[in-house]
Write a structure and sequence with these properties.
- The chain has 500 residues and is of the alpha/beta class.
- Helices cover 34% and strands 26% of the residues.
- The protein is built from 18 helices and 24 strands.
- A hairpin with a 2-residue loop joins strand 23 (469-474) and strand 24.
- The two termini are 45 Å apart.
Amino acid sequence: MRQEAGKEILRMEHICKSFGGFGVLEDVSFDLRAGEIHALMGANGAGKSTLMKVLAGVYLPDRGEIWHNDRHIHLKGTVRDAQQDGIAMVFQELNILPHLSVLENIFIANEISHGGIYDWKAMRRRAMEVMAEVGVEFDLDARAGELSVASQQMIEITRALNLNSNVIIFDEPTSSLTLQETERLFALMRRLKKKKVGMIYITHRMSEVYQMCDRITLLRDGKKVFSDEIGRVDHKRLLAGIVGSENTNQFPEKHHREGAVILEARHVSCRGKYEDVSFTLKEGEILGFAGLAGSGRTEIAKTIFGCFRPDEGEFFYRGKPLRVKNPADAVRQGIGYVSEDRKAEGILAVRSIRENMSLANLHRLGRGFHIRGREEAEAVQEKIRELKIKAGSMNQRIENLSGGNQQKVCLGKWLMIKPGLLLLDEPTRGVDVGARADFYRIIQELVKQNIGILIISSEEEELIGLCSRILVMREGRKAGEFRDSEENLKEKMLKLMLNI
C-alpha cells in the first residue's frame, strides 16, 4: 500500500505488557510516518523488542491500542494477522527455514494456490517482480540455509514486501553483517524509503542511527523517555537518556600490571582457517583481536576452546602444552568461551536463567545425578546481582530476556566455573551503552584477578578502550600488532584490516 510521504501510518497508544508479574512496558506510545526510518533505542530490558513484538503480533498486550492506515487493529496476538495487515518484522534471530528453497521461504504461509494446488509458476513470477522492485536477485531454487546471513535477511525483507507491508521492523539488522553487507542493506532501506515504506530501526549502534534515521524514540525501564527529530538529539542527550545520567563514560581505567604468560601461540595453523599465528597473553593485560569477518579471529578462539584441532604449531597454557580434544576438556581446564552466535551456541532458549547459568558448572555442583540445588541457587543469584541481570526470577525462561540480558547470562555461566582464561567473541554485540559499561567494569576486575582475557570485536573503539595490545588479522594471517598507546591507532588498524 503506497502512502503520502510524511503521513502518519501507524500509532500505538498506552501499550502495557508484563511477564509473570514483571512489568516490561508501561504506558508506551509510538508513531510512524510513511517513508521515514524511525529509530527505537534504549538499554537492554528497556522494552524495545517487546514493544515491536506486540506490534508484529508475537505478544498480546495487557492494555493499549494500535491504529494502522487510519484503521483500529483488533489485536489477536498472532504474527499472521499482523502480516496480513501489512506489518512485518525482520527479527534479530532470523526466521528462515534453512532446508527450504528461497522461493518457499518467500511464500511461507502466503502460497498462491488454486483448488488446493500450489501455483509455482505464479509464485515464481511474483517473486521475480518483488525482487526487481527492491533491487535484489536470488536463485529461487537455492536452499536458504546455504546462503549468507545477509542474503537470508534480504529474503525476509522480500517476504515482507510480498505481503504488501508498508511497515517493516528491523531488530538489530547489522549485528551479524560485514561492512559491505551493511551498506547493501542500507541501500535497500533507502529504496524502500522512496517507496513510502515506514521502517522502525532497533539498534545500539549510534553511528547507524545518525546515518540512516529521521527520528528517535528512546525507552528506559519500560517507559518512553522522549521522541524527537534526529537533528535535535545529539550524542550527549541520547547517551544520558539511555543510561539515565550525565555520566556516559563506558570504559573503566585499565589495569596495566603485566605478569606471567597465561597463553602462548607458537606458529599455529588450522588448514583453511588461519596460518602461522603467534602471540602471547599475559597476566594483567587484555589481548584484542581485530579483523573483518572471515579473517580467522573466531577460528583461533574456537581452536583454543577445542572446537578445532591445529594442523601445525602449538598453544601453551600456563607454560604447559594445551591439550584439548573438545570443549568439555577446555572447561575442565578453566577455559570459557562466550560465542558470537548466542542463539546457536550460547543459550538453551526454552530453559531458565538458572539452568543456563549452571550448565558449564554441573561437574562442580553435582554429585552423581544429584544437583546441590541450594548451592546452585545461591551461585546463580550472586551472578544475577553482580551482572545486573534484569529478570523476574532465576527461573524465568531465558528466551523472555532481552538480548543483552541473555548475553549477561552467557558471561555469568563462565564466571561460575572460576575461569583462568576467558575467550570473549563479540561480547557486547546487541548490548546497550549502560550494559556495556557493566561488562567492561567486570572484565577489568577479572584482569586484576590474573584471569586471561582475549577479546574478539568488530568495534575498533571497544578494542582500543579495553585492550593493552591489539592483534590485527587479515585473510587468516596475523597482519600486525599494536600497543594501546599507539597514535592514530584506529586508522592504523583499519588500514591493516582493509589492506590499504
